[in-house]
Amino acid sequence: MAATYDFPSDLLAGQEELHQVRAELLALLKRLPWSVEPLDGFSDTGGWRKVERPASPGWTADEQAEVEKLRQRERELAVFVTCHRFWSEVAPAETVEARARLKHTHEVLSPEHPS
Fold first, then answer.
1. Minimal CA–CA distance to 70: which of 36, 15, 28, 12?
2. Long-range residue pairs from 15-21, CB within 8 A, at least 24 positions apart, any chain
3. What single string gives the DSSP state of each residue in 59-76?
4. What is the pLDDT of residues 20-32, one digit of tens each?
5. CA angle 36, 37, 40 (to 5 degrees)
6. Is residue 28 a contact partner of residue 67, using CB atoms and an 8 Å limit?
7. Is it the case that residue 113 has pLDDT exceeding 60?
8. pTM of the predicted model, to two decimals?
9. Quick check: 99 and 3 in contact, CB under 8 A?
10. Element (DSSP H or E) covering residue 44
């Protein structure tokens, strides 16, 4: 039988916020131009796969600041979750399983997340 873990509420909240911040960052990066700096477009058909990019106007200062803000929060949350005092209570042999369960806890708790 698989072990169950009684994750502290602050650890669960930190992990959930980490999921949210990562999703927000990914959505932002998908919306932004492919290059931070303005660059001309290019087309490379000589390689093993065709690569094309349109000209990029670059990111605005506000866009760069927003990406940096989200990346900074992502780092803070990752450190909080991985260094949480809870992990000292978990047997070393169970740490990987416990961490995986924590990462997927939101799927069980939130019906909008597919399993």
1. 28
2. 15/81, 15/102, 15/103, 15/105, 15/106, 16/106, 17/77, 18/74, 18/77, 18/78, 18/81, 19/106, 21/70, 21/73, 21/74, 21/77
3. --HHHHHHHHHHHHHHHH
4. 999 999 999 999 9
5. 115
6. yes
7. no
8. 0.83
9. no
10. strand 42-44
